[in-house]
Amino acid sequence: MFRSLVFLFLAFCSFRGSGQSLYMPRDVKQAFAKGTRSPDGRPGKNYWQNKARYQIAITVTPPSRVIQGEEDIVYFNKSPDTLSSASFKLFMNIHKPGALRADNATADYLSAGMKIDAFRLNGQSQEWPDPDGFVLQSVPLPSPLLPGDSIRFSFRWHYELASLDGGREGAIDSTTFFLAYFYPRVVVYDDYNGWDKTNFTDLQEFYSDFNDYTVTLRVPANYIVWGTGTLQEPGSVLQPDIAERLKASQASDALVHIVNGADLRAKNVTLQNRVNSWRFTATDIPDMAYAVSDHFVWDASSMIVDRTTGRRSSIHAVYNDTASDYHQMVRYARKALDWLSNQWPGVPYPYEKMTVFQGNAGMEYPMVANDESYGDTLISKLVATHEIAHTWMPFYMGINETRYGFMDEGWATTFELLFSRHDFGVRQAEQLFKDFRVHTWQSDPGAEEDIPIITPGHALTGIANRTNNYGKAALGYLAMKDYLGDELFKKCLHEYMRRWHGKHPIPWDFFNTFNDVSGRNLNWFWNSWFFSWSYMDIAVQKLISNGKGYTLTVKNVGGMPVPFDCKVLYTDGSHGSLHQSPAVWQVNPHQATVHIPTGKKIASLTIDGGIWMDSNPADNEWPSTPKK
User: Fold this and answer.
1) Model pTM score
2) C-alpha radius of gyration, the chain, whole number
3) Looking at residues 459-468, what average pLDDT do you find?
4) Are residues 335 and 436 in the same domain?
5) 223 has pLDDT over 90
6) pLDDT at residue 624, as a whole number
7) Under 8 Å CB-to-CB from 496, ≥6 apart: which residues?
8) N or C: which end of the chain has fewer CB within 10 A?
9) With b meaning 16 or more CB within 10 Å and e meaning fewer, what string describes 20-34?
10) What is the pLDDT of residues 279-333, one digit of tens each?
11) What is the pLDDT of residues 28-43, one digit of tens each?
12) Cα 3 from chain centroid (whole Å)
């Protein structure tokens, strides 16, 4: 009996320590059972993903907000499954009255949505099955799509851009449009969830396959188009002088004013055809987005983003000349792109260019950011850096933002802080981070703030969704960085990105990769930060002299394994500080003991979490502050 009790005790200790397992939903378990995911964090031997080839042509004729388009999609079924239907998302239907939305819609937001004017399947005309439907729609296939086979979908459609209040896309002004999610697309069919049938409510974001695109935008003379992909034959749409400036900017570190106000007034920017066709191409990319204007100016430069190969990328700023912060935007973006490519995440920017466009959304797209203008240039830099940081997650890594938004927003928020420390200084950067990313969560005791990060994003609304995806997740990544140290943390991050670049990682791939590469079972940490209802609240229990200094006992009231600093004031007036990583909570997640070696007498002590803000700082001092 005694031996059995000892065995059970040791087994319990093992579970409480590094041997904990992570909760896994049943659909994800099935993926591991099928061998598409591996326990060591690598793609499984049976991993697969589908893709498509898009040929799209759209006609834009401002000030009319009607967008007309046609496309061919060749969809390749690389799965082991036979597909009897195909699912599509028509994102512009979010603007239809009656669509399921997270927030109330203004009159300027509403429209008639996307109208499918013609639909063909493998060249045969078909009736679109749900002309009155909303975003998510399904089409039965006349014959099953077998594994390894392909199918062609053809569309002709039109829709009206939302006016001035389109959210992530729409009319910026009467002759400046931002076009995103503007085409019918096949939704992701993956190894753990099948067809992605999560609805789009304009709160959660997106999930896309890596596709090949050719997009042609037909616009009137004097309208310029910027966006994702390589502009084919610039001389077919731009005047020779303008095309030459563009070419020069692609090989120069200097700022080049490709189009200024005088050029726009003289109408010497584009060829003076009735219609110019701007054609862009890109491969293995999750989306395309474009901006069109006849009065926005255009600055550009370029820089080496890969110091090993010498590869350059262009940086563009497109804006109304009245936006004073955008006059510096190329410089801001250059600095961010250089730092992100070489420091954190420290993977060279993967695309040929990055354009920051003055819109109204603060939203990322491959090679394009749609950002507001701000009077405070610190905020301008912060927003631009955050959106550029999304290049790595979710675009370089094909994150399911709808379900696991913390896998991209949390990282963009992490990189945003790390860059800001470098650019603004630690004190100012961390104060901004606390004000904008942490304070709301920590000052709100509502239960929705404690919902575990792992909760699927499409099951959340409001503040819970934002807290989990941004500040809380970023603090979890930063706490792991503190625990592992920069060198090992970066090694784990780089291997995760190497394994899953161009694929669709899910949280367990990330957690398992870090466990594998670090050589440690970190599940005790992942459980507390990402799977529990914990929050950040630690408290001083006692401080006693031990003959060689002091022993401090700290209670983890909230349960999160946060790092903290012990800040000491000695009776002689001197100060000291002792940092504690999350490792102090590994053996006992509820209580930590800290040894403070000193021959001096302590007058007072404070535990300070810094950016890991304590929800009840009143019990963080010794001696305790008397209650009034």
Assistant:
1) 0.94
2) 27
3) 91
4) no
5) yes
6) 82
7) 41, 505, 509, 510, 513, 514, 517
8) C
9) bebeeeeebeebbee
10) 999 999 999 999 999 999 999 999 999 999 999 999 999 999 999 999 999 999 9
11) 999 999 999 999 999 9
12) 52
- The pLDDT, as a whole number, for residue 19 is 56
Domain interval for residue 562? 538-622
According to DSSP, residue 23 is labeled P
**Of 567, 552, 576, 558, nearest in space to 612 by CA:** 558
Please check whether residues 524 and 543 belong to one and the same domain.
Answer: no
| Measured torsion, CA atoms of residues 325, 327, 331, 333, in degrees rounded to the nearest 10 | 60
Mean pLDDT of all residues in 549-557: 97
CB 473 within 8 A of CB 457: no
Residue 623 CB partners (closer than 8 Å, separation 6+): 604
Strands (E), 373-474: none
Which residues 6+ apart lie within 8 Å of 582 measured at CB? 479, 480, 482, 483, 525, 561, 562, 563
Measured distance CA(483)–CA(524) in Å, rounded: 12
Instruction: Answer whether 60's CB lies under 8 Å from 177's CB.
Output: yes
140 with 260, same domain? yes
Question: Is 102 within 8 Å of 48 (Cβ atoms)?
Answer: no
pLDDT of residue 559: 97
Asked if residue 124 has pLDDT above 70, the reply is yes
pLDDT of 4 higher than 90: no
The contacts of residue 502 (CB under 8 Å, 6+ apart) are 210, 284, 396, 398
Q: How far is CA 37 from CA 40, 78, 334, 485, 488, in A?
A: 9, 16, 37, 28, 24
Which of 394, 422, 442 terminates a domain? The answer is 394
Q: Are strands 289-293 and 224-227 parallel, antiparallel or unpaired?
A: antiparallel
CB-based contact 325:374 (threshold 8 Å): yes
| 542 phi-psi bin (left φ>0, alpha ψ -120 to 50, beta other) | beta
Residue 269 and residue 281 share a domain = yes
Give the chain's largest Cα–Cα span: 94
Q: Give the pLDDT of residue 626.
A: 58
DSSP state of 122: T
The answer to whether residue 627 sits within a structural domain is: no
Q: Say whether both 138 and 190 belong to one domain.
A: yes
Give yes or no for a contact between 569 and 496, defined as CB atoms under 8 angstroms apart: no
**Residue at 380 is within a domain:** no
Residue 2 one-letter amino acid: F
Half-sphere exposure of 333 (CA within 13 A, CB side): 33
**What does the pLDDT read at residue 6?**
34
Q: Tell me the pLDDT band of 165, cut-offs 50, 70 and 90.
A: confident
Tokens 């955050």 belong to residue: 386
CB 176 within 8 A of CB 226: no
Domain presence at residue 300: yes
* Helix residue ranges per DSSP H, 173-301: 240-249, 261-266
Looking at the chain, the whole-number percentage of residues with pLDDT higher than 70 is 96
Number of Cβ within a 10 Å radius of residue 141: 14
Residue 10 neighbours by CB distance under 10 Å: 10
Planar angle of CA 100, 209, 203, nearest 5 degrees: 25
Which helix (H) or strand (E) element contains residue 34?
A: helix 26-34
Nearest-angstrom CA–CA distance, 450 and 447: 5
Q: What is the CATH number of the domain that holds 11?
A: 1.10.390.10
Q: Tokens 């004031």, residue?
A: 569
Cis before 345 (ω within 30): yes
Q: Write down the residue that tokens 């920069």 correspond to.
A: 486
CA dist., res. 28 & res. 512, Å (int): 13
